[in-house]
Design a protein that fits this description.
The chain has 18 helices and no strands. By secondary structure, it is mostly helical.
């Protein structure tokens, strides 16, 4: 079920109404049934895979808490292997199979491929990472194992964030789902504000930029260098608006039920370094890799060669997490490379060391945006050949007079997004509205609603991060 569908606009009010009408002891059942229905509206049979993850990690965590030594470690490994095994099979099997064939062919050896027609279950990467974090925290002694299977199932399945995050920890979301919430005006008003704003960001901004980006990526050789560069920048805004819109709607939906989930974005394109960018972009994923991969590898408390290794491994694996393609692997590696390069040449500025010079801050911000935008090409392109054709057209098509590209409207949408980021810098739309005069609040609501009704994209595009 999509957030921007008529089905969801019927589903959400019904669930919210029933949630507050039901006695507290039955609410977990409603959340479980509603979350299963929400997911099964997409591909029904894949709910069984989520049930498998839930049962494995529920049993593993209980066993880990009650055992010691090798048996405790065994169940942690069993839990992680089960989650990653499921993810690798559906997401990476065909990638490894085709690359093995290429390797064997290069070595003049025979290898018979066994390609499988697999459809990646929606949100599987998010579910496995969220569930694994729970088991790891129980193993570390930071989290008590949940005895109530229903509450743990809701932690994995909770419908507002189950498809594309944010990736929550059990210490946060698990406790939120156990609260005996009462209907509060504050929750309804802030929840609806966030849903409205998220829909505007997705449907009015992202979906109006998408057609222009798609047109160029389908046939880059037909466009000149200016068009190519414009679209490279525009995709940066499209993917941000698309994912930021989803996350904002998710936070708003959860808030209607009195449940607080984390912010996943904090004005990332106003970052002055790659490091700061990743503190502001997809925060739940960045923190997951920091806590469960980077720090266990030694983090930055190691010698320089090992630090370089740790950074490149984490960024490369995070790229591979996004998709089974060399383009994603290179995308992640390049982020790691530029992260290290900034460290090396001494232009790294943390958020706590903001320069007094607005000009220098502007240069650093544009530098970061430019690097991130160029690397996004690897993320957006279907394969390395398409990456090559994009960069070739960017460099060589200075005087090509091909197809006419109308991107003025798309740029207006991008500027609106940048303006809203600047306006709500280090804040959030609902929090900013609470402290604003009523006339200003209603002016914003009117503009947003008008934009949704009159300027939403003609074609409905699925959320980009659904594929991960």
């Amino acid at each position: 079920m999509l957030f921007n569908s008529l089905q969801f606009f019927i589903f959400l009010p019904v669930v919210t109404l029933l949630f507050y009408l039901l006695p507290f002891r039955f609410r977990w059942i409603l959340i479980f049934v509603a979350s299963c229905y929400f997911y099964m509206a997409l591909i029904p049979k894949y709910i069984l895979l989520l049930f498998f993850i839930i049962l494995v990690d529920y049993i593993s965590a209980l066993t880990i808490e009650q055992t010691r030594g090798k048996l405790k470690t065994f169940f942690l490994v069993f839990s992680i292997a089960s989650n990653l095994g499921l993810l690798c099979f559906f997401k990476y099997y065909n990638f490894f199979d085709s690359n093995l064939e290429s390797l064997f062919r290069h070595l003049h050896l025979s290898y018979e491929r066994i390609p499988l027609q697999l459809i990646l279950p929606i949100g599987l990467s998010f579910h496995t990472f969220q569930s694994m974090s729970y088991t790891i925290e129980v193993y570390r002694g930071n989290q008590k194992a949940e005895r109530h299977l229903g509450y743990f199932a809701n932690y994995v399945l909770f419908f507002p964030q189950m498809v594309a995050g944010p990736i929550e920890r059990y210490s946060s979301l698990g406790n939120e789902l156990k609260k005996n919430n009462t209907p509060l005006y504050e929750n309804f008003s802030n929840g609806l504000r966030l849903i409205l704003f998220g829909l505007f960001i997705k449907m009015t901004i992202a979906d109006n930029i998408a057609p222009v980006v798609n047109q160029v990526y389908e046939n880059p050789s037909q466009f000149n260098s200016i068009d190519i560069l414009s679209v490279i920048f525009l995709f940066s805004f499209q993917i941000y608006a698309d994912f930021y819109g989803y996350s904002t709607i998710a936070i708003g939906c959860a808030r209607l039920l009195g449940v607080n989930i984390m912010d996943n974005f904090k004005t990332p394109y106003l970052s002055r370094s790659i490091s700061e960018f990743w503190q502001r972009w997809h925060i739940s994923l960045s923190s997951w890799f920091r806590d469960y991969l980077y720090i266990p590898l030694g983090g930055n408390k190691v010698k320089i060669p090992r630090f370089i290794f740790n950074v490149l491994v984490v960024f490369t694996i995070s790229g591979f997490w996004h998709g089974a393609s060399w383009t994603f692997i290179i995308w992640g590696f390049l982020h790691g490379f530029f992260f290290l390069l900034e460290k090396l040449i001494g232009i790294y500025f943390s958020s706590s060391k903001k320069s007094e010079s607005w000009f220098l801050n502007g240069i650093l911000t544009f530098k970061t945006f430019l690097i991130v935008s160029l690397i996004w090409v690897f993320f957006r392109a279907e394969n390395l050949e398409k990456v090559k054709s994009i960069f070739y057209a960017l460099i060589h098509n200075k005087s090509v007079a091909g197809e006419q590209l109308h991107y003025g409207y798309a740029w207006i949408m991008a500027i609106v997004l940048l303006f809203s980021d600047y306006l709500f810098f280090n804040s959030r739309f609902d929090k900013s509205m609470v402290g604003s005069p009523s006339f200003l609040r209603w002016a914003f609501y009117t503009i947003i609603l008008f934009g949704l009704l009159t300027m939403s994209g003609v074609e409905q595009y699925p959320f980009i991060y659904f594929q991960f």
